[in-house]
Amino acid sequence: xxxxxxxxxxxxxxxxxxxxxxxxxxxxxxxxxxxxxxxxxxxxxxxxxxxxxxxxxxxxxxxxxxxxxxxxxxxxxxxxxxxxxxxxxxxxxxxxxxxxxxxxxxxxxxxxxxxxxxxxxxxxxxxxxxxxxxxxxxxxxxxxxxxxxxxxxxxxxxxxxxxxxxxxxxxxxxxxxxxxxxxxxxxxxxxxxxxxxxxxxxxxxxxxxxxxxxxxxxxxxxxxxxxxxxxxxxxxxxxxxxxxxxxxxxxxxxxxxxxxxxxxxxxxxxxxxxxxxxxxxxxxxxxxxxxxxxxxxxxxxxxxxxxxxxxxxxxxxxxxxxxxxxxxxxxxxxxxxxxxxxxxxxxxxxxxxxxxxxxxxxxxxxxxxxxxxxxxxx
Amino acid sequence: xxxxxxxxxxxxxxxxxxxxxxxxxxxxxxxxxxxxxxxxxxxxxxxxxxxxxxxxxxxxxxxxxxxxxxxxxxxxxxxxxxxxxxxxxxxxxxxxxxxxxxxxxxxxxxxxxxxxxxxxxxxxxxxxxxxxxxxxxxxxxxxxxxxxxxxxxxxxxxxxxxxxxxxxxxxxxxxxxxxxxxxxxxxxxxxxxxxxxxxxxxxxxxxxxxxxxxxxxxxxxxxxxxxxxxxxxxxxxxxxxxxxxxxxxxxxxxxxxxxxxxxxxxxxxxxxxxxxxxxxxxxxxxxxxxxxxxxxxxxxxxxxxxxxxxxxxxxxxxxxxxxxxxxxxxxxxxxxxxxxxxxxxxxxxxxxxxxxxxxxxxxxxxxxxxxxxxxxxx
Lengths: 378, 378
Hints:
Two copies of one chain form a homodimer. Chain A has 14 helices and twelve strands. Chain A has helices spanning 10-16, 26-43, 57-68, 82-93, 111-120, 142-151, 171-174, 200-207, 220-227, 241-257, 259-279, 306-317, 344-360, 370-377, and strands at 49-53, 74-79, 97-102, 126-130, 132-133, 138-139, 155-159, 178-180, 194-198, 295-299, 322-323, 332-336. In chain A, strand 7 (155-159), helix 7 (171-174) and strand 8 form a beta-alpha-beta unit. The longest helix of chain A is centred in the C-terminal third of the chain and has 21 residues, at 259-279. The two termini of chain A are 20 Å apart. At the A-B interface, helix 1, helix 3, helix 4 and helix 10 of A face helix 1, helix 3, helix 4 and helix 10 of B.
């Protein structure tokens, strides 16, 4: 129940361990086609250029930036947590200039500030932002931000690592141009793969590039030769075949459950967890309107020792919760309710264990009432 | 029995499917330390900066180039197959100039030509070459090439994707500066991870860089914060936890067998396969002195239809062999004997199946003698 990787379902682990076949085997090519189709469903898009990058989310982020940002480009980057900072690094390593729009950690992106940035930098080529900030548990208004990019003739790059499968990710509805994600959060697949999707305007920008993409491995024109279209698949790199079995299975599970049902499940267990935490006397960091159901930022109660509590949860209950990051380090915990791990069982386990460990360490809480409060919320 | 991914042993698949834990979990950090130690053994090196890149071999290649090549640098690139061409792409995308030293496909790198290139470009910063060319089944003299680089105050970048675990890879003995590899060949681990190692001269070059590495994901100074030393592990990216379980298990198996025993096993079964193929009347593409035991390039016999034979092997025998690439496309097959798949059972299966399929298709071979010839060689 940390900020990810989340618990992987036995069904996905079973798929992962199937015998490895060749990355150009006809059976594997068929599986690749199914993965693309399932990603269209998960992302709610018809974008042809939708595929899993064979590396973690950080590489998916880099794939978006190196394909769309060229030296001299101005990129407006929203930062309200850790991952906006990483986007800035990416822009600069592509030779671009990052114009930072900063909000406090724990707050969503302020649309008015982004609007002002576009007024100041009307030729900005890209707007980059994080839909669901894993470092703070905040969601921002992706639809409004993508619209703002389009209105200003800029491309949007959207981080959906923590959102896909947990809350509504609607690439076509938003009009998002480039989106990357991760497998290890609400998809409950093993970490190491980053699904990406590029819309028509982004594809046109890639096709009209003047210089080659600085990364050979992440050059989407080359990757598409392997993943794309109806033509013969050209060898680009050796795909992580077994990880693709797992991704396929996890996406199939999402489709079987249905997107809306998955979102509702995350919301239901989130509500119960919050009811329990608040009954215990703990307070949430993020305003209700912007909270991610899958990642719960809770303030440490008086008298709690951050590291000691997390160590006790791990050693006594095999339960991982995440530390706060950046401005929230030592002040908040990050409790994940992601994918397969988002269950009544885990809500009850987490509340019971926290109650026990905090009481034993003498923190100021209302002991013995959290589980009942959570159950009452169902 | 293609050119990789090779068959993965059940023991490695079992490890792969273990429950996912956090990438900063103390248990996982312990596993990371063991992986580093096992890589030191497999690569025969004491290089501190030895770790698995969380992406396929193509990304391991790129990690070496982006960290060591800066705009304006001259790099001597040896090309005697597909992967030298990919190195050229990498150099150019780093803003460097690639000086190509070309040899025929199926021939090893000619040391005299490399010497001449250094005479013509005495300030070349890097010499890059492939130890074991997966596209042609040829090995080149890595020790002599690394020495030539050192003599000319250049850094060596060495591709050992297909060699490690199958033939002698001796980073410290060679004095190699930067080496990348893959998990999916003679280590018989699942594809998707690229072990790399950087020696002291390469580390110094990285530390003295004037500009940031163009890839955030592959920036070794950042990656080291997660994988390195005795200090607290800093989050860089989410490691592909399950793939690391598998890599750990495959490296452990290599250590249990012993490097020399593993090399001998590859040589023994290679000798038997060649005896069988030659008895059948087929000829090898590569001279005996430069053949890779783990990747056997064999000329198509008269009357054989490349694609039809490979399709029949796959559908009738579940047996994959590789097509020829580049200059060898349609003219040769690539038969892998890698890692777990390098066994007497596979030698006999391959010869029997080839004999049967080629006979059925009316190719000119000596039928019915290959298996006996192979068995006589043991």
